[in-house]
Input
Amino acid sequence: MFELLLLVLGVVLIVWGAEQFAEHLAAASSRLGVTTFALAILLAGAEPEELATAVAAGVRDVPAVAFGDVVGANAAICLVALAVGALVAPLPFSPTIRRYAALALPAGVLAVAFAWDGEVGRLEGLVLVAAYVGYVALIWVRERRPPSLGETSELDEATTSGVSPSRVGRELVLVVIGTAAIVVGASLLVEAVRRFTDLEADQTRLSLTIVGFATAFELVVLAWSSARRGISDAVVAAVVDSYAYNSTMTLGAAAVITPLGIADASLLHLPMLGMLAALGLVLALSARTGRLTRADAVVLLGGYVLFLVLSAAS
Output
């Protein structure tokens, strides 16, 4: 019972903290002068909850949670978050968005290649972090002065030049508070999984399913609320960058701090292939009509059910 309480409390803190982080970091970054798409893909897509969970798992010597969270969260944001957004309103996939989605796929392949043997050392971690820095640099250069991809009321309010310094200071304080909540929540979540079971196989399965979905839940909510308000570009941008961020920065930073390794790497093989297939499915469905429709959303949700089955059976 206590383990379940820790799990629930950890999820609540992570979701609340991630909401504060994403919402107020956008406002605090109002004077960067980037487009809506660039701001969304660089900030809303950054996943502090996954990073904190993976780092906490490594430090507490529960590496199965770190691996499972990265893989499970990436599957959830592709197959659930985008599906939820597409159920509300069709999600457009312009050539620009598809290009950056395609760039995220090699990031996933690199992560799978490094983690295939069940180990990611410090050197591999540094390579993954460097890969994300390169990914961000490319986006920054390409998107600083691009044609507008569709200004949105929510992000316009955050990026307007009229935000006062005092308001920016307040937003930064809320970012710090949100980050602290994420760190505490991640620690509680990892501790809950550790207390549930000492078996590495069970820890891996719990992380691929429950932990992965929990840390990705903030993006599911973002997809629903943004699509409902017509902020489709922001939804797609956030999901695309989250996939790349988790594959590189989350896994890489955790490995740099504490090298990760599990005894039975085969537990991750099918789920990791499923993670790659998730983004591949999104790209394939969006290539037909240049958007994700409600029918596509049903296919994506079916894909997530299959991912859960494979994860539980691995």
Q: What stands out?
A: The radius of gyration is 18 Å. The chain has twelve helices and four strands. Residues 145-161 have pLDDT under 50 and may be disordered.
